[in-house]
Hints:
Helices cover 60% and strands 3% of the residues. By secondary structure, it is mostly helical. It has one domain (3-154, 189-232). The protein has a two-stranded antiparallel ribbon with strand order 1-2. The chain is elongated.
Amino acid sequence: MNSDDNLRSLEKWGDPLEQAIVENEALLPVLVPYACIWARHLLVRRDKQHRYVKSEEWYEFGAHHYTALIRVENAYRSLRQIREACCTLRQQTDAKEALLDLHLAIASFWENLGCAIENLEKALQKIVRSGTLARQGAVERAFAKRSRLIHGLIVPVATNDQSIEFYVSHLEDEDDKKGWHQPKERTTEWVEQHHDDEWVAILAGLASAWESVNSQLPSAPQPENPISWFAETSPLDAGIRLAALSGTLPPTLDTDF
């Protein structure tokens, strides 16, 4: 198996969202290990109609694994919304709707990244009970900011002399309070560049985390057909596209495990 075969298999045999995301080149660093795990451990465990994974523990693994990918895609979309809101604010500083959009986009960016990290670790622990992911560097920062945005204060945003000021101090402070009393003023240019830089670092960290999951999983079963076959063959009934790895098992499971 190689990464190209895995990605082509995901494109042909994945569910509609996987098929859409696999075309996003910006996510390639995580798509390569995602597709590898998906092809080696999930595709080969589907029922004869290739609709859902037969093993319940691997189905649950797949649900968390799938959720992690969707969350990374959502974070990328939130990053684009951050850029759009910043662009609007640079042109019109009294754009209250854009300020609210920026609040929403930044919260969504960090919350989705944190959720991706958490679900990736949960996926691993469904199969390897003692499995862990090293939360360090950009990955650790992402998870910490996710927690503060969910449980703590919002990031204050204000206008001043035709400039947007973004107060980020409280995200850097453990007690989540000093940002309101000792603010650091940041312009929209800084906000946009900051999130672009963090995205690059976090994406690299997530790629390493996905590789770590892959290395800790047990040996994959021998598929009836080589992955290259899946890469070149479309499902017989292309209309049947249940969520490949959704979090809910099918209503009835007549297939023997």
